[in-house]
Amino acid sequence: MPDLSAIPTIALKDARIALRDRFLLAATLALVAAALISLITGTVAMRTDVATYMAAKQQLLALGKSLGSIAAPEFYPLKLMRGTIEQIEIMGAVIALIAGYRAAVEERGRQTLALILTRPLSNWQFLTAKLLGGAGLMATALAFVFALCAVVLALGSGIGIGANDLLRLAITWGASTLYLSAIFAVGFGLSLWLKSPASGLLYAFALWLLVVLVAPQIGDTMDPDNQVAGGVFAQLSIPKAEQTRIKQGFATYETIRNGIEVSSVTKHYERFTFAVLGIKDIYTGKALGPIWADKKGDAWFLILFTLGLGGLVLLRPIRADRLTKET
Amino acid sequence: MTPSTILRRHALAALARERTIALVAALFAALVLVSAYLGWSATSTVDAIYASATHWFEANGKPVPPNPVTQGSPLALLRNLTIYISLIGAFSAIVIGYRMVETDRRAGVLPLIGARPLERLDYARGKVSALALAVGGLAALAGVVGAATLAILPSVHLGPGDWARLAAFFSLGWLYMMIFGLIAIGASARARSETVGLMVPTVVWLVLTFVWPALTGNILPTAAINPISALAPAPQSAIFDLSANLLGPFSLAEAYKYLGAELMGYLPDGLPPRGPVPPLVVMMLFAAGSGLYALRGCLKLDMTKGGPDA
What we know:
- The structure holds 2 protein chains of 2 kinds.
- Chain A has 12 helices and no strands.
- Chain A is mainly alpha-helical.
- In chain A, helix 5 (123-156) packs antiparallel against helix 12 (288-315) and helix 7 (197-222) packs antiparallel against helix 10.
- Chain B has one domain (3-299).
- In chain B, 74% of the residues lie in helices and 0% in strands.
- Chain B has helices at residues 3-17, 19-59, 68-71, 80-106, 109-115, 120-152, 160-190, 194-217, 221-224, 238-247, 252-264, 279-299.
- In chain B, helix 2 (19-59) runs antiparallel to helix 4 (80-106), helix 6 (120-152) runs antiparallel to helix 12 (279-299) and helix 11 (252-264) packs across helix 12.
């Protein structure tokens, strides 16, 4: 039975170093700032909509007309999390890459990797500790982001949030932790494997561009409704039933478009969290049970992708000529 | 041969040997092709949707609205290029600018250059001109692929004015990439570690691309990388009016996308630029600022450090 006590020791040592590391703190604060900026600007936009509705309502009442001509808007505070989720997808992923890079370079740069491997410690134990330390770090930073967002939502939306909303935020926090842990593993693995850790970071950035930005962007851009300002169907004023009929004629195109989107883990993360938070209209106000039934595929992809990447890092042995920063 | 010419040739030769640069350039070229395909494919789909909708309008005795595809310029087919230049193009320029100084430092060439009777200004001139040529190569590559695509497509007919606009668009793209390349030269010249030299321009690029548009116009990150959604008007609110006035002049990515859309003919009618400063002026100010930053970095570069342990 292998001695597993070294794993928490190394993971906690990483956590302590990360807490002392001003750069990582600055990066976490940058994520908080990006998330809050999106949340606050979303709140301002929502309040503008409310004000517009109230003004129209007052005008109709003053004219003695019925309110039936304008639809009363429904407001769901969690919908305001859209910008925050998108910031985690993009900015959070960059921070996770850098955290992964630093987890590798702090051992290679300080020449401690060679020392650690002279101890009675397996490669997999060392790597597991580093990955768990990274996942813990991501979980802590995200807990901070989501706690702040919950406070801003409760105070800023004017509607307040309940226990069910908090549960949905907690599930989203879990999914976000998985997503960023996977990206951390990419940054860590590449910075550990390549000759120069800086090259590892560079390749990690290139992968980030492709997986996080380009693949979802291609899918998004291929959406016909994103080709015309305001949407093609809205511009042509086509009723919903006719829209559905027309869309059926483009099933193959839609399959290809969807296939490109789902090749990216980012899209699975986005689809799952958008459903849980009710950001996507068809899931707004829906119970978690039916959402899980619909979106468990995305959740499983996220889980298996993270475990798979972690497994890949664990399985690849540490090369003797990669123990220091430069060789 | 002047010292700056020698340094430029050396920098370009070093870049040509770098596998990373070749990889990033190949990625950029591939995405330019993807962009051309996407433009053609998406436009054809919208066209087919319109044809299908026309039957419904006629069957219901309603007036048929104009086709949204034929209302725009044929250059709009390449609208995704605006985004790919702002993503992969800017990132490539950052990598080129970063490697430009870092390669000298890591190879131990800096102390050798420092020992020669050279002015620091020559070093700066050599590096900036090499960057301009390398980034110009990327812009030219995108230009050739884009122009070939437009020339091959049978349904697209461009006049001399359109070709001139296309050329102006690629010049704009070159300027945009140069700004980030210059920031990367300045950052890697001044940074104490190679990572910081890469991180500073990357963070600036991320903030300008994904955070600033949210502040000035509530443009979310995913919308910021969609050529059409990125041009949504800001919500009608005093707060956004104020933020656009204060922060709009610093919104480089939005200024570039606005000008790109204007040149390629897909700018929504009546959409004002973000903030009171004209987008071209915003880009020129950023170009001047980043140029000065790169120059200052090269002038203050520590020429005594070099080699793998620097």
